[in-house]
Write a structure and sequence with these properties.
Elements: H1 4-20, H2 37-51, H3 56-63, H4 67-85, H5 96-128, H6 154-164, H7 176-189
Helix pairs in contact: 2-3, 3-4
Length: 193
């Protein structure tokens, strides 16, 4: 048994709590705010049957359902009740929006890292005295890309000359076919000489 002084202080504490915070209705103040009147009537009938106030036949008649349909709705309501009683998973929940935001943040970070690395490369090139590479050729106004020049493989030409030996004539870098093409092009244009 509790002493009288403790019991009176506990009662006073309960009264003080009631004065500070108004009592909220059972189920919370927002219960049923976004539901239709039909859903509210059906939920009330199911709760009355589960509490033993009504029989299932009376509840089915009150909401205008057949007995089999009432049982289907009741089982669906109980399944929803059980799902709502399930503990939420711990930790942060992943959604498409949060994943998209994380990917965007990662993309921005990588863009900043790329710009920083490019600046460091340019600084290194300047300090060593290297000329920065020329920017890529832009498309012409008519939409066509400029034709890329075929690289001349000078190392192969030099290797062929070295393998041929010192007795061969010096190579000018033009093959016989290239020379004949240039000659025929001059002849066709009428420029001889």
């Amino acid at each position: 048994m509790m002493p009288a002084s403790i019991a009176s202080s506990a009662a006073a504490a309960d009264k003080g709590r009631d004065k500070k915070r108004p009592r909220q209705p059972v189920g919370g103040p927002h219960l049923g705010r976004d539901t239709s009147p039909e859903a509210k009537r059906l939920a009330a009938a199911i709760l009355e049957v589960l509490a033993g106030v009504r029989t299932t036949a009376d509840a089915a008649t009150a909401v205008g359902l057949s007995l089999t349909r009432y049982y289907q709705v009741e089982s669906r309501a109980l399944a929803g009740f059980l799902r709502a009683c399930e503990a939420p998973p711990k930790g942060r929940r992943h959604s498409v929006e949060s994943d998209l935001a994380a990917l965007r943040r990662d993309n921005e970070r990588l863009q900043r890292d790329l710009a920083r690395q490019q600046a460091l490369v340019r600084l290194g090139q300047r300090s060593v005295g290297l000329v920065p590479p020329a920017p890529a050729a832009k498309a012409k106004p008519n939409g066509k890309k400029p034709r890329r020049r075929r690289p001349v493989v000078r190392a192969l030409q030099v290797a062929a000359r070295l393998q041929a030996g010192p007795a061969s004539a010096p190579d000018t870098g033009l093959s016989l076919q290239q020379g004949s093409r240039e000659t025929s092009a001059r002849d066709a244009s009428g420029d001889q000489g």
